[in-house]
Amino acid sequence: MAFYLGKAVDTEAGGTTDERVLYEPKHLTTHGLVFGMTGSGKTGLCVGLLEEAALHDIPTIAIDPKGDLTNLALSWPDLDASHFTEWLDPSAAEAAGGDASKAGAARAALWRRGLEGSGLGEADIRRLRERTNITIYTPGSSAGVPVSLLDRFDPPGDYAQMPGEERAELVSGLVAALLGLIDVDADPLRSRESILIANILTHAWERGHAIELADLIRAVSDPPFDRLGVFELEQFFPKKARQQLAMRLNGLIASPAFAQWLTGAPLDIDQLFARNDAGSRTSIFTIAHLSDSERMSFVTLLLERIVAWMRTQPGSGELRALVYMDEVTGYLPPHPLNPPSKRPLLTLLKQARAFGLGTLLATQNPVDVDYKALTNAGTWFVGKLQTEQDLERILDGLTAAASGHGKALDRGALSRRVAGLEGRQFVLSNAHTDEQPVLKTRFCMSNLRGPLTRHEIERAESAGFYNLTTDPRLGPLGRSGPMSDRRATPRPPGRGTELSAASPRTRPPDPRPELASALVGGTPEGVDARFLGREWLRDPAAREAVGLGPIAASTGTVTYQPALLCRARLMWRNDAGKSVGGDLLTRVVYPLPYLPSAVRFPGPGVEVPEAWLEPAAEPGTAFDLLPAWLDRRAKVERLRERFADELAATGRVSVPVCPPLSLHGEPGEPLEAFRERLATRLRLAAERLRDADAGPRSVEAAIWQRRLDGLREELEMSAREIRWLSERGETDKLSRAKDGARLRMQSYREMEAARDAAAAERERSLADTEFADIDHLASCRMELLTLDRDRTRVSWFGILWIPSH
User: Which of 21-30, 41-50, 596-605 has the lowest mean pLDDT?
Assistant: First the structure.
């Protein structure tokens, strides 16, 4: 059976039809990409895909950096309003005037109507609950099921038979993940720390031995070999330096905050991908609560385990299992960035097809995804996009992917389709079919209420919403101790509490006391800083600008978390070298990555008005620790210089221009939008011109009228004179009078013609202006502008402190 994704959209009529859009699961073996800006419906599409995989008994490992996928545990066959009320997002209750029951009932009714509109009902939800065994893993936390990752490093079962290149890649990935936890940049070719630990692991694994973390740390100080490459060990990595590295690694296992990484369920990929008559697993690894270095390390370790498992499997043309990552930005960046997670992700995209393992990745920033990843995906779901740059990147990738499958792509038609998309609408491009339908996603059976907090994850398990399986064929889920031993979970706070950011990104206590003591008090000396006002967290625009998710109630102490705020005044010039104006660019880097090399400056600008920012922190607040690469002014200055260099290196934008008027639009502005804006501007200018011309035109008309009135009076006098002479019979005088009257009539007609000609000329002049405006609109085109490096300036660069709890 096929996946049910949604209903087809009639792009001509603009409405949704009753035709179901179906998708063959085996097509995901060539992998899938989901693109869409915030509000595009990307999360709903992906949750629906995971529900379909569960209904088809396809086991899934889902990596959840934002916390949205925990909503898969919130599905109730009866759709009773009490469930929705109990699990209501606090901000939804506040929006309903504080009446949680009313808001919950409204949400339950909305869900029932939405599912009925999608042709789904209670029976479908019941079948989903019966066929799905959901487990929510929380690495580094006991909120869900903790994961034991670093207590022991076991070699894969086929390690001895693996090619040398694959063994080296596996070891280097594990080493990079481990060193990332202590903020060491683990370049496998240049980092002596990486080379040493990789040789220790290889030494043990080649002899068939597993090595525990404690033994690995001791081996760092006293390795089982005395030479690395052609150099003596002491020359390559002196003992004093090795001892310092061992002390930093020892800080991991000595820290209470790290204890959860050493206990919990073993990361057994074979068990996670178990598939039989009892159903299959949907394993959600939610990592929103981790620091950036911990996220990178965990994702790398998990992906390396999946790659190792994949290489032990027989070939398959059907979809055997699925790996999904909810937001891949930062984990699969374009060249030359190379975080530890990039290599195993690319390996899955290039090799997993042969083993029946599908990979599905989602992002709202296509320009931040490696081009090789784009061209290795056979299925693309494209929703509403944020910038023209995003659309061009997707069109380039689709063109390359289609070419690889021997197909041609109509870029213009696809571009128009994407430009016309609304929320929950996606263009489906599948290399296995010739059609590219537009679909509106079906309603999810899970309640998409937003990320669950750690307390809510505990409460969901206690309520029996996940981790329920007792079937021995699915194996243990890793929770030690009976459910009654779990500590009671407090209910979500009610009204009357303060609001702060709900993003649980606080770092654990830093095991390096010298760094912690150096950073008490927040901003390093000599570094510029601003503080986001807490009242602005109520504004969705402010939260979106700095990369925050929803807000939650909290009565705890406010803690400021660090971000980078970068501002530059960009000046542009065209190919002729002519300056065409400038723009103010503002970017926010949040959350801060685990290494400075992972900081990504390119991307769309955001609006951060000065009104949102405060010069000082609130009294009585605490500060989260800065990463080590931001603890001195000199390091911040180096980042500022890199920001300026990257601006200069990537400083080419496509903007709409009107050459006759020497006008240009904004970077990323569509040509049609620029034309509409320019047409409005020209129309207003024409109206002003007509208004300005009205006065002189009325004066000129009055002058003409006075002249004509004078001639008309003379004609009337001539007529009276002719009548009088005719009555008296004075023939000679009568003849002369008639001749004079004819001359005056001719003068009158000539003056009327001159008046009409002057009015027509004035109208022609105004019409020429309007026709010229039409020509100007027709001459509008897109032009590539280059950054004027000499005139571009970084106007502000420093730390933005964001309040959180």
Answer: 596-605
User: Against a cut of 0.70, is the pTM above it?
Assistant: no
Q: What single letter denotes the amino acid at residue 293?
A: S
According to DSSP, residue 528 is labeled: -
Query: Residue 729 — left, alpha, or beta (φ > 0 → left; ψ -120 to 50 → alpha)?
Result: left
CA-to-CA distance for 717 and 713, rounded, in angstroms?
A: 6
Q: What is the pLDDT of residues 57-79, one digit of tens each?
A: 999 999 999 999 999 999 989 89
Contacts of 645 (CB under 8 A, 6+ apart): none
| The Cα angle at residue 708 between residues 702 and 712, in degrees rounded to 5 | 140
Mean pLDDT value of segment 85-94: 78
pLDDT of residue 473: 36
SS3 state of residue 427: strand
SS3 per residue for 734-765: HHHHHHHHHHHHHHHHHHHHHHHHHHHHHHHH
Least Cα distance to 366 among 352, 382, 378, 350 occurs for 382
Phi, psi for residue 552 in degrees, rounded to 5: -135, 160
Buried b (16+ CB within 10 A) or exposed e, 5-37: bbbbbebeeeebeeeebebbbbbbbbbbbbbbe
- Please choose, from the candidates 666, 671, 559, 691, the residue with its C-alpha nearest in 3D space to the C-alpha of residue 618: 559
User: How many other β-carbons are positioned within 10 Å of the β-carbon of residue 176?
Assistant: 28
Token output for 783: 């032009």
Q: Are 115 and 165 in contact (CB under 8 A)?
A: no
Phi and psi at 526, nearest 5°, equal 85, 0
